[in-house]
Amino acid sequence: MDVRSTPSYLYWLFCQFELITCSYLMEPWEKVLFYSFNLAMLGLLLYTTYVCVAFHASSAFQLLCSFLGAPRENALSVVK
C-alpha cells in the first residue's frame, strides 16, 4: 500500500463504517453521542483485555514454573 493512498483508504473505511451503522442518517449531535459511546466501549474492551491477558499470562507463567520445579519463594520464609 502506498503512503499517499492511506488517507483515501482510511476515508473509504470510515464511509463503510457509516454505511454499515447507518450513522450517515444521523444528525451531528447524534453522531457525537454515537461515536463517543462506541469509543468508550472500545476503550473499555481494550483495557479489560489488557488486564485479563496480563492476569492469565501471569497465572500461566506461575503454573509453568511450578511444573518445571522452580518453586516460588514463600513470603513467610523470607520473613523468618
TrEMBL record:
Topology in the lipid bilayer: Multi-pass membrane protein
InterPro entries: Ser_palmitoyltrfase_ssu-like
A GO term from the CC aspect: endoplasmic reticulum membrane
Coiled coil: none
Compartments in which it is found: Endoplasmic reticulum membrane
GO biological process, one term: ceramide biosynthetic process
Parts of the chain that traverse the membrane: 32-53
Pathway(s) served: Sphingolipid metabolism; Lipid metabolism; sphingolipid metabolism
Pfam families: SPT_ssu-like (PF11779)
Keywords noted in UniProt: Endoplasmic reticulum, Lipid metabolism, Membrane, Sphingolipid metabolism, Transferase, Transmembrane, Transmembrane helix
GO molecular function annotations of the record: serine C-palmitoyltransferase activity
Function field: Component of the serine palmitoyltransferase multisubunit enzyme (SPT) that catalyzes the initial and rate-limiting step in sphingolipid biosynthesis by condensing L-serine and activated acyl-CoA (most commonly palmitoyl-CoA) to form long-chain bases. The SPT complex is composed of SPTLC1, SPTLC2 or SPTLC3 and SPTSSA or SPTSSB. Within this complex, the heterodimer consisting of SPTLC1 and SPTLC2/SPTLC3 forms the catalytic core. Within the SPT complex, SPTSSB stimulates the catalytic activity and plays a role in substrate specificity.
Family from the record: Belongs to the SPTSS family. SPTSSB subfamily.
Subunit and partners: Component of the serine palmitoyltransferase (SPT) complex, which is composed of SPTLC1, SPTLC2 or SPTLC3 and SPTSSA or SPTSSB. The heterodimer consisting of SPTLC1 and SPTLC2/SPTLC3 forms the catalytic core of the enzyme, while SPTSSA or SPTSSB subunits determine substrate specificity. SPT also interacts with ORMDL proteins, especially ORMDL3, which negatively regulate SPT activity in the presence of ceramides.
PANTHER family the UniProt entry points to: SERINE PALMITOYLTRANSFERASE SMALL SUBUNIT B
Protein name per the record: Serine palmitoyltransferase small subunit B
Lineage, uppermost ranks: Eukaryota, Metazoa, Chordata, Craniata, Vertebrata
